[in-house]
Amino acid sequence: MTAFLEVSGLKAFYGQTQALYDVGFALEKGGITTLLGANGAGKTTTLRAICNMVRAEGRISFDGQPIVGRPTESVVRLGVAHVPEGRGTFTTMTVDENLRIAAYTRGRSAKADVQQDLDMVFEYFPRLKERMQQQAGTLSGGEQQMLAVSRALMLRPRLMLLDEPSFGLAPLIVQEIFRILRRINEESKVSMLLVEQNAALALDLADHAYVLETGRVVMAGPSADVKNDENVRKSYLGY
Amino acid sequence: MEQLIQQVASGLANGAIYACVALALVMIFVSTSHINFAQGEMAMFSTYLSWQLIQWGVGYWPAFVIAVLVSFVGGVLIERTILRPLHTAPILSVVVVFIGLLAVFNSVAGTIWSYLIKEYPSPFPKEALDLAGLIGAHQVGVVIVTLVVLSALYVFFRYTPLGLAMRAAAQNPVSARLAGVRVDSMLALGWGLAAAVGAVAGMMVAHIVYLEPNMMGGILLYAFAGALLGGITNPGGAVLGGFMVGVLENLVAFFGNVIEKQTGVYIIGNGEKLTVALIIVICVLTLKPSGLFGRVVVTRV
Lengths: 239, 301
Known about the structure:
The complex is a heterodimer of chains A (239) and B (301). With 239 residues, chain A is α/β, with parallel strands linked by helices.
């Protein structure tokens, strides 16, 4: 049986510069996998390669279909929701519009469904409901991150790619967001691929972990094993 | 006083046309950061198409609708075939392509229809729209038609999912792609809409300035002034700016005449209208580059 998301021999390039040399990993359906590594190790690039936002070579298959070379939009339409670095807020639009954009691909017959999904999103993030008509650019960093996760949810994804959801946020907000990510994974059955600087947090949430170094996978295994590895502990966990 | 009202009214009519062209410029600018210098010539070409159809015996309004539709398709095709390959080209290459398009449309129109000035009909009934002699029937009609077009566009962008997707693609293409929006198609659609709106402006103004291949030159300049004045990043602002420029140019001429009558000194008049537009452009660019309603865009480097 093949995995839900399977990546092997992945290379990626920014212009002439090669950022990934040989990245490979697999993600089980319903699981949460995390990619760890220092700055510049290629974590973000790996997520971008999956969505075809950088030039990539190698094999990526999602739910049995090869997706290398497919335009970003069609990868998204297969059920891959990417929560990008920097949150990708549509700053001059309202929160409501930000969410509805992600429902655009469903067409007009789906009005009731969209409302139902909006309700689900507001149940996860009640704060966004209060801010429905507010301009999204005026939200706090934490709220914009919640909005980014919500926008991804509105795509009804089967796989979520999360690029440093804790970046620049207060610890309490980070805890809240990670708690909700776990709920989304359990209740909505969304598989997740998580990239994080905060390794302790990521290893707690994820079931599997891969460590990247300069564009290569140097270590892989169940989160508990990776957490107990001495090198990982010294380099990423700091004890 | 009556004269003043007259001037303001006819300024609004001109302004309506500038507003349409300004909106066409802004629609392309917000999604690509390019100013389409060929916008005016595209509109001129569309106007010739409608004129030709009318000559062949098609009624005014059917010809109008056909010209708008053909312009829409033409705009989409220009984006797909000429500009798509230039997606990553440096800005100067794009500018050169726009100027090339301008020259091509101008000379092709001249070749097919000659450079002789032609009369262009007005579709508006004289009796029904005559407002106590204050403002001509054609001018009232122009204001009505442009307001209908502008409101339709407003509703489209504000309340329809496709309009929302187009705005998303213009504002943040990367995020829009991640939301499943086909950004490339949205760009082409934007070009089509811009060409269609420009065509409306061309067909409305042709009765006033007469039909000839260079008829849109001045108008494009006024529209550009309007777009800059209102804020080139803000469609609503650009429309308002278009109207303001239209009224302003008439007021300048009007008060110039008043001064001349009272003091006998000619300072400014009809002849300097275009100069006023250029002064607006320069003032906005030096004093408030983002325009009255524009957004200051900060680029991270």
